[in-house]
Amino acid sequence: MGSRGIVTLWVFLAGCLAGAPQNGVLVDVAVVDQNGLPAPSVRIEFKSSAGVVSAADTDSQGHAIFPRLDPARYEVTATGAGFEPIRRILELRSDQPASLELTMVPSLERRESVEVRGVVSPVEQGSSAPTVLQAQIAKELPSRPTTVSDALALLPGVVREPGGGLMISASPEHRSALIVNSADVTDPATGQFGLTVPIDSVETLNVYQTPYLPEFGRFTAGLVSVETRRSGDKWKWELNDPFPEFIIRSYHLRGLRTATPRLNFEGPLLPGKLYLTEGFEYEVRKTLVYTLPFPYNQKKTEGINSFSQLDWISSSRNLFTATAHIAPRRLGFVNIDYFNPQETAPDAATHNYTGTAADRLTLLGGVLETIFSMTRFDARVWGRGHENLVITPTGNRGNYFAQRDRDAERFSGASSFAFAPLGKAGTHLFKIGAYVAASSVDGELNEHPIDILDTQNRRLQNISFPRSRAYNISDVEFAFFGQDHWKVRPGLAFDLGMRSESQQVSGAVRVAPRTGIVWSPFSDKGAVFRAGFGLFYDRVPLNVYNFNRYPNQLVTHFGPDGAVSEGPFLYLNTLGKARVRFPFVFQRPVDGNFSPWSETWSAQVEQPLTSFLRLRISYVQNDSDGLAILHSVAPDRETNTGAYLLDGSGRAAYRQIEATARVRLGKEREGFFSYVRSRARGDLNDFGRFLGTFPLPVIRPNQYTNLPGDLPNRFLLWGVFKFPADFRAAPVVEYRSGFPYIVTDALQNYVGTPNQTRYPNFLSVDCRVSKDIKVNPKYSVRLSVSSFNLTNHFNPEAVHGNIADPAYGFFFGHRGRRFTADFDVLF
Question: What is the 3-state secondary structure (H, E, C) of 152-192?
Fold first, then answer.
């Protein structure tokens, strides 16, 4: 299966070059890939009725010169590793030199995209080099990821926090962007990724921490770019995990654990024209929480995840692609743990529907790409009863406090044009584009009272919400960009450009200049130095602008005798103004004029040590300001009225040093090792903790300290290695610092500076061993055994962090050594 990309075939004849040599016609053949970059090492052959007349390979600039061809009619073929072969007819006339330009198409047959990139010089790749994970490799690893988000934590700079959310550069998920085939698929209300595309439908995952190309925007932390698979010329079927797993305790069957059958098929509906790819998963999963007793420790998930893709090759110059992602889910006992048992946890139903239509056309030597998309996220959240949520130092009881019903949708369109290479003072690859999106969210939020008790069950505080509130808001976004990849000479290139973004709801226009350099001082095959600087802006999710429509809070304090000691105080939800002045942001002085931004710069050195070993060392610095942060404003004693103020005064700082080694011993033997040293500090009261699908019940005063994703040290090693007799081994080793955690008192206030204490260091040694057994020439069965935490290292999942708790400071919830077995059917 070929990697995703734009499929374009383009032929342009240019004649009228005077002064052809008397002994033949001169022909200059220029070959570029689908992005307009020169394609070296492509074999060009001129054939006549007598056979091959002349042949040559393109150089590092993508050119091949044929100086002495007789005037005649020729069949021109172009073949290259990872590309579809091209065949064109060219008629040469006497005394008229000619030029021929070809645009190569990614191969329809499956291949490793790293091999394709290997034929392009590092300078052509530019200053924004992502970390790449092949989906086929990720599927071999012990965790058996089923979606894109499951696989992302295998990459440096990406971790999954204890609550389950993804963090890139130690930042919450809503500060990053997720695009699938260049289309934005994030939730317009929360900025979250939602249920991502099935891993079986993915070709490659690309994670950018420093994407300096201005075509990328609407984030301040990182970008996840997913390229999906496209069908080949033969029908293929694959059935993964066809049988369920069961819970066995004390040698007795105790029910179903998981059932995750995945069916994938692909093939030509009209050979050479219309292709279909389908990835379908049905999931029933009970996730065990090791801090609770069985059987009251099971989070439940049920749903389907379907991704369909149609590719229509209308001509050699045009490709049309349509996709549909359907992902309804039912969730039970969300986010349960020792302190929040099943009765306190919410249930939920979510629905995610995304459709895209993309047209890619070769025009005037360039590529015109137009993409339309529609995304809809629906969420229903409810508690398991109507009792007050009771919070105590030793654990909570009662029912979840928030009942939510909301619908969010976005319609967007984007168009870009990559010009043909321009040879002025080097080679310029210009690209311009525009983006427009209309989004909206409407819903209703009803919240039940919350009681805070001490260890003797005396009520210390009551939080009530006088009435439920309905809300709705809409927004229109615009973005424009222009960029140039300027190759000054072989081994040196610059990325230059500017991006402009605006959100109607914020009343702000944001300008983002960016620049980068890529330099190969010795040769295209030697060391590569990359560096860059850029400004980035978050798109502000619509839930931020609904905050002042959320239910207000009525807070009452009680004394030891149970009588009211203070209050009740009414806290109003209010939107503030951005306090940071920034010369590249133009905004109106209105409430909610937020423009979260970051200054990011990086430097990277990459060196191939041998033909199979490549080493990369990099430094990333990201300083963010203007983030939407929630503050508590003390009540006025005369009116007993305070406020929860959401303003744009938040800050965050991230520093990362990374050393990565990648070993590639063949198509099915690859190893990856990375060490990341990082530090992350910022304001704790990020809006996402309180305005997400499952908000936290207690709002504490904001503090600037270590962020929840701060991990000073992280070692990560994984690989996939094939051995004789169709055996495969896929080890994964992770050793890292423990996550920081907060210490609280009986009133749930911070004790000291939060996030200064940590869990013990984490170590997990996992491995999956599999063997393919051929049933007949067409079918194979893959049997596998996966092991987790082979060293049985103590990796606790929870800690008693309240100083009023008699067990304060005790870590628990250890996941010991365990094994699972499964098999897949390969067609």
Answer: HCCCCCEEECCCCCEEECCECHHHEEEEECCEECCCCCCCC
pLDDT in tens, 388-428: 999 999 999 999 999 999 999 999 999 999 998 888 888 89
Helix (H) or strand (E) holding 325: strand 318-332
Signed CA dihedral, 412, 418, 419, 423: sign only: positive
Burial of 415 (0-12, 13-18, 19+ CB in 10 A): middle
What per-residue confidence (pLDDT) applies to 6?
Answer: 29
Residues present in the chain in total: 827
Cβ atoms of 796 and 813 within 8 Å: the answer is yes
Asked if omega into 295 is within 30° of 0 (cis), the reply is: yes
State the Cα–Cα distance between residues 31 and 79, nearest whole angstrom. 11
Residue 512 CA to residue 597 CA, distance in Å, equals 9
- CB of 179 within 8 A of CB of 375? no
Element housing 32 (H / E)? strand 25-32
Per the rule left: phi > 0, alpha: psi between -120 and 50, beta: everything else, 194 is left
Question: Which residues are 191's β-sheet partners?
Answer: none
Spatial CA neighbour of 9 closest among 87, 120, 74: 87
pLDDT tens by residue, 247-286: 887 778 888 888 889 999 999 999 888 999 999 999 999 9
Is residue 12 scored above 50 in pLDDT?
no
C-alpha 158/C-alpha 151 separation (Å) is 10
For 615-663, what is the HEC assignment? EEEEEEEEEEEEEEEEEEEEEECCCCEEEEEEEEEEEEEEEEEEEEEEE
Q: What is the pLDDT of residue 610?
A: 81
pLDDT at residue 117 greater than cutoff 50? no
pTM: 0.83
What is the Cα 462 distance to its own chain's centre? 40
pLDDT at 17 over 60: no
Residue 119 pLDDT exceeds 60: no
pLDDT tens by residue, 741-769: 999 999 999 999 999 999 999 999 999 99
Q: Which amino acid is at 648?
A: G
Which pair of tokens denotes residue 744? 């609280």
Could you give the CA distance from residue 643 to residue 557 in angstroms, rounded to a whole number?
16
Tokens of 481: 């960009």
Rounded Cα distance between 103 and 86, Å, is 9
Task: For 693-730, write each residue's pLDDT tens digit.
Answer: 999 999 999 999 999 999 999 999 999 988 888 899 99
Q: 3-class DSSP state for residue 544?
A: helix
- Please give the helix or strand (H or E) that residue 117 lies within, else none: helix 113-118
Calpha distance 335→212 (Å, rounded): 36
123 φ, ψ (degrees, to nearest 5): -65, -35
Three-class secondary structure of residue 691 per DSSP = helix
| Side-chain-side CA neighbours of residue 543 (13 Å) | 29
User: Which tokens sit at 750?
Assistant: 């911070």
Number of helices (H), then strands (E), belonging to the chain: the values are: 6, 52
Cβ contact 185:325 at 8 Å: yes
Q: Which residue has the tokens 């976005």?
A: 410
Q: What does the buried/exposed string (b/e) look like for 787-802 if buried means 16 or more CB atoms within 10 Å of the residue's CB?
A: bbbeeebebbbbbbbb
Q: Is the dihedral angle over the CA atoms 691, 695, 700, 703 positive or is it negative?
A: negative
- Find all residues with CB under 8 Å of 252, minimum gap 6, and list them: none
If you search the block for the tokens 């092991």, which residue do you land on? Answer: 787
- Residue 150 is inside which H or E element, if any? helix 148-152
Phi/psi of residue 151, nearest 5 degrees: -85, -20
103: burial class by Cβ within 10 Å (0-12, 13-18, 19+)? Answer: buried
User: Rounded CA gap, 98 and 108, in Å?
Assistant: 30
